[in-house]
Amino acid sequence: KNQNSPNITAHLFIIINMQPVFESGEEIGDDDSIVSSDDDEPLKAGDQAKDLLDKAKEEETADDTPEAFVRKENQAVKIVRIIVAIVLVGAALGTSLIVFKFARDSEHDAFESEFDGVAGRLVDAMVSDVSLKLWIGRTLSSAATMVMEKAGESHLNLTMPNALFEQLTQEARFNANIFFVAWGPILSTDEERTQFEAFTATQTYEEDTDPPCYLCGDKNKGFLNPEKNVDLPGFGVFPCGPLDVAARDGVIPAENCMSVSFAVSSTCICGDVPPREEEVTTALVIPDKIFKTTDAGSVPVEYGNAPYSPIWQATALNIKKLPIMYDSMSEPVRKKTIERSLETSLPIMSESYLRVGPFYEEFHAAVSDNHRGALMYYPVFEPASDAIVGMITMEVFWESFLSGIFPSQSDKIHMVIENSCGQNFTYRVNLGSENMVLLGEGDLHDSEYSDMVHSSSFEKYEQIVDLAATVSRNHTGLDYCRYRFHVFATNDFEDVYVTNDPFVFAIITGVIFIFTSAVFVFYDLIVRRRQSKVMGAAKRTNDIVTDLFPKEVRDRMYERAQEDKTKNSFLTNTTKMQMQNFLSDDVSQTFFGTDPIADFFPHATVIFIDIAGFTAWSSEREPTQVFRLLETIYHAFDEVAKSLGVFKVETIGDSYVAVCGLPAPREKHAVIMAQFANVCLKRMKRLTRDLEKHLGPSTGELRARVGLHSGPVTAGVLRGEKARFQLFGDTVNTASRLESSGMPHRIHASKETADLLSASGKGHWVSPRRDLVQVKGKGAMQTYWLTPIAKGDRSSRGSIKSTSSTSGETFSDMRGAVKGARNSLVNSLDPGVVEARSRSLQKKNARLVEWNVEVLYKLLEKVVIARGSKENAVVNREALQQVEKGLEEQKAGKIILDEMTYILPLPSFDKAGRQAIANASIPPNVKEQMHEFINRISHLYRDVPFHNFEHASHVIMSAGKLMNRIVNPDGLDFEKAGTAEAMEIHAQTYGICSDRLMQFAVVFSALIHDVDHTGLTNAELIKIGVPISSVYRNKSIAEQNSVDVAWDVLMDDRFKDLRACLYTNEEELTHFRQLIVNAVMATDIADKELKTLRESRWDEAFSECAPEAPSDTAQVDSDRKATIIFEYIIQASDVAHTMQHWHTYQKFNRRLFAERYLAWRNGHAGEKNPSEFWYGGELWFFDNYIIPLARKLDKCGVFGVSYHEYLNYAKENKKEWEIKGHTIVAEMLESCREKYDNDDKTSDHFSDDEATCTA
């Protein structure tokens, strides 16, 4: 709270950073926290402080830095200067050039300096003004609380004394330019409203105003400059016009009338003006009910809409009448702001809004669609309580936010007001009226001056809110309409300071100093350019070396460079050659010809961290998703490494390599590295689960596999084209082998590391692995599992049985899911049966639900935005219900197959719609309804091994990836493309890019296509005679049932808002229904009739032998191709696992085998064990369906590189299956027999997190 605070903060920052973040004597808790240990003594902060000071001193005195090197080289330049002076005597133009540059630079410096001053003052003023307004709100809030406490009144019958209220609000109006100030209670219930209205009925509203004050001495005279601002000392800055109106209305006290009149006379200038109509003063009638404003006028607010926030006491400038009893909760902007203030107990500023509408037309004297305002709400607390019982309302106008404080030339800058609600507005100062003028919505500043900006920050806004608030903020950030301000330079501002004078000065100087100063000026120009290059190159070199090498190695590199310079004489190695060698962008060239920089470190611990399952996971994702995962995880590892003093060596693919104990020796390097590994495992587990909501299924199953080994290491700078610090030796190789032979989410360590831990008193961290590990070049090794835990806590210790299976999925992980599936098969196949889920499966499905919501909601937004410019965009709820009812009547007596459409009609290219500005928004509750809908769908999936919700999510991911390749071909963005380019993409994709509803429907179909699937084929369902077989005419039973079940859920009344976003009329509803039916029916690849239908349609569309269609059927032909592509997307996505990485294929192949084994075991799948035909069946499936399907994706011509990716994976998987298939089938059969033929046998090899079968 004093001027020295910044210095104190700086000193505290230094002291805090001297503290060691992690010490070797600390242990890692389950939540990544540090637990102190009594058997190790932490390092002293004083020792670290001394090290920091020594390091700083060394850096200051070092003479081998690039900067010092440049200083020494300048000595050689002096010799060259004499030669240049003799040779360049006639270079008179050099003088002119230097003078011109100097003058031009001076102008630019003046321009930048003046801008910094003007912009800085404006930004500071904006921030200070916001702070002032918030503090005024605090004063009013405290006064209201005090009055309640003193008078013993509740908020329901609180009326602040008029004199007190007028005194407090006078400062708000005159000092802070707040045009409207009000107090009103918060009525939480209808009962409180009734009490309040009963109280107000007994009150009379008395306006305690002074007599009129005529500032020009006569009521028939007025100001000739009403727009000009005048500064009233002690009160603030006001426009002359509104000030005169306020004075006539008695706002200015009688004792101040004379002094104010004298202060404004020279600025506002009195004169004869048209006579002003004197308003007849009438007593303010208090409405007997809380009301709201509509286009038809004021109407009472209906009961049952609590809470209410009526305005009770108010004062304002330039207003028709005070809106007493107006319910602020009846207006959306006010309601949202009040609700946020009630939630946080903090003063809240609303989003910016136009001062138009019924409210302003009825109560305000001036209404303009070019004036924007904002509301500030400050909560009023009940005495001796944190309960909020009222609100202080303050309304400000951005145009007059900073009236009268604008410095010179400020009318030539742009000010952008930005808030976290997604709003930007650009203003320009009008020095004539001393107001800000709105240029328009959005950031409209001149992009040429984007680098010349002064800004405040959201964090600064939070600080002033914290200072003004009466309660502490209980969260880390304000998430509602924080404001910040940006001031940009303009070309007009620059023209004031940057002129043609440098040309004139250059010519004059060249004439005067043509024979005397030309050589020296030109020489100075060369030196400046040379110094700039030297410093730039030196900085680049220093930055590269700092990033790539430890400090000790970096110092030796500089020393080596200095020694090489000393050995070479001036004649044999010129200055130019020395600089080129030292400052070369290729760092390695500096050191060739000398001994390498390398050392032997006898005591170090090396770690390898690999992401298990990453290769298969990445094959299913877009490149941006892959890099998002790696960046997130590696950044977390880097932070941990920096805190613990571990040196990161490099990343190789998805492997992370680090070392502890070099180049600076550390006694407890093994302990520190074990701590590092443990924190990294837990960080990654938490991060992958969090990322699953954004990156899709299987992300939460990714785990780190860690290998640790301690021993001697050779380390140094490996010189070459890309010089790097590298590690070599048996320790590095052994650590890599231990990582590859470890297990996910486990720390695998060698005996050497385990011994070091035991010697450091950490033996309780170590447990031996039961089996020996075969390590290349070493044979069988005894290794250990590490679990850093507090001494005495052995609950997490234990060994893990090894398994010979290093890839694929073991069936012991699926016991809980399969038991639920078997129970469902004997439960009369009732579609409404929802099996009990295990706790881990529930958590996993919950994350998948979150991810699915994000995917579908983004697609839904595109549907709504695309519809926003159309005439039929407005939803008529009653008409929509009639349309839905009509569709149900049309479906009567029909089955899903009857609704299939041979050719789906697609919309034509909407050129006008692309050019129009879509003004569409989705109601907030739609996302909640979508979440509830997807959650219900997830519970309608049975717990069968394959056709479950996880597989549906995998299909969604694949469908989204394929559709994205269509919508954004070759990296182009259809949504952002120009009209001509978009038309070309539209034609190339047969209109799919323009049909947002189709893009949504393909992912929606993937979500529901296996709802209520029993794990049996359609033929098996017919054979056992399930009741729905006859209903669906013994065709595509599972698929038709999925559509009906999901559609019934969607038609539930609680999802009516979601449906209103999907379709708004009969045409859109019919189109959506057709898309869903065709997509889900396309997943039945076993039905011969449907297969024949699809093949004939393919021949008509893409076969070279097909007859050409007449010219009048060009649109029909395009729609036919789009229909085929649409169905192929869902077909390819349904079997996408066969066209992805081998591990992904095996994971789902094993689950499908388990599902078929269960069907056979329960007597529903014939007499043959599936293992008897599984090997050949997979090969047949690849040859006759998968590979042909991948080739058709290419022939469609819309999927880009996906065709090559899918086809190559399909071929590779088939080849791998030919080699390993028999062995895998035998393993699958044995696993199934072990689990399903012995119900009482359980497996304890895996935790709950791994119960869903990790590959």
The tally of beta strands, per DSSP, is 29
Q: Could you tell me the strand content as a percent range?
A: 5-15%
**Share of helix among residues?**
40-55%
Low-confidence parts: 1-30, 33-62, 569-591, 794-837, 1240-1255
Q: Biggest β-sheet, characterized?
A: 8 strands, mixed
Shape: globular
Helical stretch count?
39
Distance between the termini: 60 Å
- What is the typical, i.e. mean, pLDDT? 77
Judged by helices, strands and strand pairing, the structural class is alpha+beta
What quaternary form is this? Answer: single chain
Could you give a short description of this structure?
This protein is an alpha+beta fold. The chain has 39 helices and 29 strands.
Tell me what the structure shows.
With 1255 residues, this protein is an alpha+beta fold. The protein is built from 39 helices and 29 strands. Strands 20, 21, 22, 23, 24, 25, 26 and 29 form an eight-stranded mixed sheet that branches. Strands 3, 10, 11, 12, 13 and 14 form a six-stranded antiparallel sheet that branches. Helix 23 (839-867) packs across helix 26 (924-940) and helix 29 (996-1008) runs parallel beside helix 36. It is globular. The two termini are 60 Å apart. The model is unreliable at 1-30, 33-62, 569-591, 794-837 and 1240-1255 (pLDDT under 50).
